[in-house]
Amino acid sequence: MIRHLLSIRDLTPDQVERVLHTAAAFQAEGPRITKKYPTLVGKTVCNLFYESSTRTRTSFELAAKRLSADVVNFSRSGSAVEKGESLKDTAQTIEAMGVDAIVVRHASSGAPHRLAHWVSASVINAGDGMHEHPTQALLDLYTIRQHHRSFEGLRVAIVGDVLHSRVARSNVWGLQMMGAEVTLVAPRTLLPPRVETWGVEVTADLDGVLPKADVVYLLRMQLERMKVGFVPSLREFSRLWGVDEQRAALMKDDALIMHPGPMNRGVEITASAADLPRSVITDQVANGIAVRMALLYLMLGGPQATQEPSDA
Amino acid sequence: MRPRATFAAAPLPPGSARGEATSLTFEPKANILDAGDVTRAIGRIAHEIVERNKGAADVVLVGILTRGASIAARLAAKIEQIEGARPACGSLDIGLYRDDIGLREPSALAPTEVPRVDGKVVVLVDDVLYTGRSTRAALDALTDLGRPRAVQLAVLVDRGHRELPIRADYVGKNVPTRRNEEIAVRLSEIDGVDEVLLGTDDEARLTEEAR
Lengths: 312, 211
Fold this sequence. Notes:
Chain A is of the alpha/beta class. Chain A folds into two domains: 8-132 and 286-300, 3-Layer(aba) Sandwich (Rossmann fold), CATH 3.40.50; 134-285, Aspartate/ornithine carbamoyltransferase (Rossmann fold). Chain A contains eleven helices and nine strands. In chain A, strand 1 (44-49), helix 2 (55-66) and strand 2 (70-75) form a beta-alpha-beta unit. Chain A is globular. The mean pLDDT of chain A is 93. Chain B is globular, with a radius of gyration of 17 Å. The A-B interface holds A 1, 13-14, 17-18, 21-22, 24-34, 36-40, 67, 142, 145-150, 277-278, 280, 282-283, 294, 297-298, 301-304 and B 1-2, 5-10, 12-13, 16, 90, 93, 95-97, 101-106, 108-118, 140, 144-147.
């Protein structure tokens, strides 16, 4: 398996399948008197979160703890980062404490890549700026696989704020790698420059896409990243690109609604649409733990190559 | 909420399947059991389980994946013929409990499916008993599932060379082996044929030389 997971493109399709298969083993039904496995006892996982997060940090923490690894959490507030310590110094401090993996979230795209050069621990990207969120893509692939047998030819519409979304980038690349066909649905202002090089279809017409899609993946409007007006108003956005029950009724019978959370109910999705049977949003959260357990097992459960950081 | 979805598994990519009967370097030297022998051995073990436990009402058969699970299912069918009722049967993945985690590439995992074991007599079923380390891992995995009244061990082949204080309660055939030899159990459910072969395996030899 790979040493670092910085991008979903670090994985081959075979390795993605391996992660999904392994995750399924962690969701086996049946009686258990403990949720824990002894597998990673003695390993230490550090959550290094420079941006706020509920589900990703908690999910990684639970995943590591259920494999009996020790977990330490560093967040921006309450750490030396507040005193102006650089990422490199923080990383080397953590490294000196002997951690085996660093799960990092950072507002700057590419921060996990830099980190991986400085430390010998495994680095897992838990979201970097507007770049990537590979474990989200893996848990989304897993959730889709629960309902659709194959990714080959599957039609996935990714709707909304693509521009600011690391989830969109990792999902586009992950889905394409597995053979799915991706359509981005968004106003031009919420599409990144050079989107035409992504190899996806692009449209602004949600109602035209809904009847054909096997999965409708709604993105969160990242209002906190919007420094200028990307849409005239949120009401107009939700009228044109939000999914309500009426729009959901246009979808195929077996099509899924997905959302990475946290939802802006009433913006990209209405409360009633989020609670439809075809919505698998809470499944995504539950599956996230199993997928991250699989990843930690595959990345930390093998012989650890004692490699030196590539630049000190 | 829609009903909880089951995972529609795609076939594993080549090379990642677990528990191949033989690696590419396996060279058979002798046929230990043929198809008839396998059936008779499993039939006898089924009778022994029923005799020792005075029936099979409290017996749960738990096969260690992959081939142990197939043998457990055959034992359950045989016990049903004898007793008229089919004992509960399950399959156990021990990959997360192995004692060589961190020493080798992580093994592929499959879902564990075991019925309630509390207060039951669990018969662990494996294809080959060798060092005893798999059985140790299985006992630990079982402990996390519940508290059986007793645990017994059934194996198709006991090849010796124990490294832990573990013995089998039911044995299909005792086969004296050398450490650099390999036992290949092939079952029709997985390999299309029932047979047990003794042979040599480059990997086994190299591992032995490295000890």
